[in-house]
Design goal:
CATH topology of the largest domain: Butyryl-CoA Dehydrogenase, subunit A, domain 2
Number of domains: 2
Shape: globular
Structural class: alpha+beta
Radius of gyration: 23 Å
CATH architecture of the largest domain: Beta Barrel
Strand content: 15-25%
CATH class of the largest domain: Mainly Beta
Order of helices and strands: HHHEEHHHHEEEEEEEEEEHH
Length: about 375
């Protein structure tokens, strides 16, 4: 089937007619833009999605990442796609020009991301998580942390994760046991295990920033005692060069029913007693800071689901237009040619239901 992953006409309708994204150009931040520049960004996203993401969607689903106890291996197309995404500037698209960004409105960048998710939701998860981690760091990180990590993340040299859940706690964050011990050097030593961490280890970037929830010794029980820490896979020297490997280890890969091309990991922090972490924001306010990323991720995951449904609708429509079966109810001539199933009322009803559900969900996520 030759159906595209995104119906551009419908996406433009949502972005420009329903949400009136062009009106944002009246604001000083977006004054350099107009509808043409917004549309050009979406054009580029749709083109890259079809050329770099969609072609290996099935291959990534059939060939999940593997781990031999030393390194993670995945199909090479994933790295190529993520590199193309970064080189096109989409990791930094909504950020200030000083950070290498295009200063695009968030709704426009999300329309761009929607194209990548429709084409290949599992590969799109790597830049998606990195964008969200960088947004959290910009909102809650110290100036030193931002200076050290923002540009590498927005350039695609460093990817990001959020490390919340633990094997014994599941998603009950009040029950996490990962510990953080302060040191005389101003950082913390992190010790614990995190489970189901998407993009937790790979060879797609030279570094990975893990945003880890942990308890400082003596902290309150429950969620009020949780703090947030930046834990790099590779420590960064004062001059920005990469230093030694941090004490963060991959302990296993989990099978996923969906997002099969995304590494889903069990991570061990501080197994050797030397996992360096840096406090992000205030001690005891880690969950507040983490919600910045969690809420963004919730909407983004919802958009991914909507775009999977949208792509499914487009393929259904393409098939219904090409599959001959039966004749119209009022056809009297048994020798009359069969019609495409899209001509049958019940098939049209089912297609309309797909269209209504998915485009409604897309509109909600873009809003």
């Amino acid at each position: 089937m030759s159906a595209p992953s995104v119906n551009r006409r419908e996406l433009d309708f949502l972005l420009f007619d329903l949400l009136d994204a062009e009106s944002l150009t009246r604001r000083p931040r977006f004054a350099e833009h107009d509808r043409r520049t917004f549309a050009a960004a979406v054009d580029t996203a749709c083109r890259l999605a079809e050329t770099h993401f969609a072609p290996h969607n099935r291959k990534a689903d059939l060939n999940e990442p593997t781990w031999d106890g030393t390194a993670v291996t995945m199909i090479p197309e994933v790295r190529q796609a993520c590199t193309a995404f970064a080189e096109a500037g989409f990791l930094a698209a909504h950020h200030d020009a000083e950070l290498g960004g295009m200063q695009l409105p968030w709704c426009v960048t999300q329309a761009c991301m929607a194209a990548f998710q429709a084409a290949n939701v599992s590969t799109a998860a790597y830049p998606f998580l990195t964008i969200a981690a960088a947004n959290l760091l910009l909102a809650h990180g110290s100036q030193e942390q931002q200076a050290m990590y923002m540009r590498p993340m927005l350039d695609g040299r460093c990817f990001g994760t959020m490390a919340l859940s633990e094997p014994q706690a599941g998603s009950s964050l009040a029950d996490i046991r990962t510990r953080a011990e302060p040191t005389d050097e101003g950082h913390y030593r992190i010790a614990g295990t995190k489970m189901w961490i998407s993009a937790g280890d790979h060879q797609l970037s030279e570094n990975i920033v893990h945003l880890v929830l942990a308890r400082i010794k003596g902290a309150l029980a429950g969620v009020r005692g949780i703090s947030l820490f930046l834990v790099p896979k590779v420590l960064v020297n004062a001059d920005g060069t990469l230093g030694r490997r941090n004490d963060v280890r991959l302990a296993g890969l989990n099978h996923k029913m969906g997002y099969r091309g995304t590494t889903n990991t069990l991570l061990s922090f501080g197994e050797g007693g030397d996992c360096v972490g840096y406090l992000v924001g205030q001690a005891g306010r880690g969950l507040d800071s983490m919600f910045h990323m969690m809420n963004e991720a919730r909407i983004g995951v919802g958009m991914g689901a909507a775009m999977l449904g949208h792509a499914g609708y487009l393929h259904s429509l393409d098939y219904a237009r090409s599959r001959p079966q039966g004749r119209p109810p009022d056809a009297k001539d048994p020798a009359a040619p069969q019609v495409a199933i899209v001509e049958h009322a019940d098939v049209r009803r089912m297609l309309l239901a797909q269209k209504a559900y998915t485009e409604g969900a897309m509109a909600l996520c873009l809003y």
